[in-house]
Amino acid sequence: MMKLDKIPQIKYTNSDNFFLLSGPCAIESEEMALRIAEQIITITDKLEIPYVFKGSFKKANRSRIDSFTGIGDEKALKILRKVSETFHVPTVTDIHEVSDAAMAAEYVDILQIPAFLVRQTDLVVAAAETGKVVNLKKGQFMSPESMKHAVTKVTDCNNEQVMVTDRGTMFGYQDMIVDFRGIPTMREFAPTVLDITHSLQQPNQTSGVTGGRPDMIETIARAGVVNHVDGLFIETHFDPASAKSDGANMLNIKYLEKLLTNLVSIRKTINNF
Question: Is the dihedral of CA 165, 167, 168, 172 positive or negative?
């Protein structure tokens, strides 16, 4: 079973708080990444939340061919490294191809497998063989029980540093739901994260741009904490409307401190049960 304190540079592992993976959907520029990271770290230091900066170095799963995919692989990965070196925090990014694994592992601490690729054995194995922590996103089409097999692919590569993330399940063609019954199931075989913002996506819109319900972020987050998730995943931006990816479901960073403060209070309460 993965141990949180094995993640390089992570802090507050003895705080009994949930850990947090948070940052922008995609790396748009160095200034943007550093600005967001600094604001989140100020909050997580205050609340003693173990924190990992999240940013995609490229976006492969896009609705339209003209959608933003990135600023350049190496350029974005160097920005992720700069965030880590500047603020002394671990970083996570998602990979999409086998060749991405070794390349991204040179720059970040956690490799994330996107939900739509989590059954791709070669990709999961390539991530595991880097020796980095692997975050497996549950496919929108998969049961919680089936994620055990994805976890086993990592541990069979002699890598125990694996966690799973629920990001909702498809409900019809254009909506997602979170089945909270899956949290205790997945926690039996790996630390479990709830991806709040992607769980509120509304994909497959006729415009070709994914929609979302950011007004429900606190509702889903509260329910996750009450149900003992180990970690939370929240994408955030100082101007979601202008974000180049997933702006429709991201949290405006000005609301992050209040949200996390409320969630930490809930966590302290349930720790007594």
Answer: negative
* 3 state SS for the chain: CCCHHHCCCCCCCCCCCCEEEEECCECCCHHHHHHHHHHHHHHHHHHCCCEEEECECCCCCCCCCCCCCCCCHHHHHHHHHHHHHHHCCCEEEECCCHHHHHHHHCCCCEEEECHHHCCCHHHHHHHHHCCCEEEEECCCCCCCCCHHHHHHHHHCCCCCCEEEEECCEECCCCCEECCCCHHHHHHCCCCEEEECCHHHEECCCCCCCCEECHHHHHHHHHHHHHCCCCEEEEEEECCHHHCCCCCCCCEEHHHHHHHHHHHHHHHHHHCCC
Residue labelled with tokens 């054995």: 121
All structural domains of the chain with their residue ranges: 4-11+18-270
Q: Kindly report the pTM of this predicted structure.
A: 0.94
- Length of the chain measured in residues: 273
Residue whose token pair is 């497996």 = 136
Domain spanning 4-11+18-270, CATH class: alpha beta
Point out the least confidently predicted range of 48-62, 121-135, 186-200: 48-62
The answer to whether residue 209 scores a pLDDT higher than 80 is no
Cα-Cα-Cα-Cα dihedral sign, residues 144, 163, 55, 131? negative
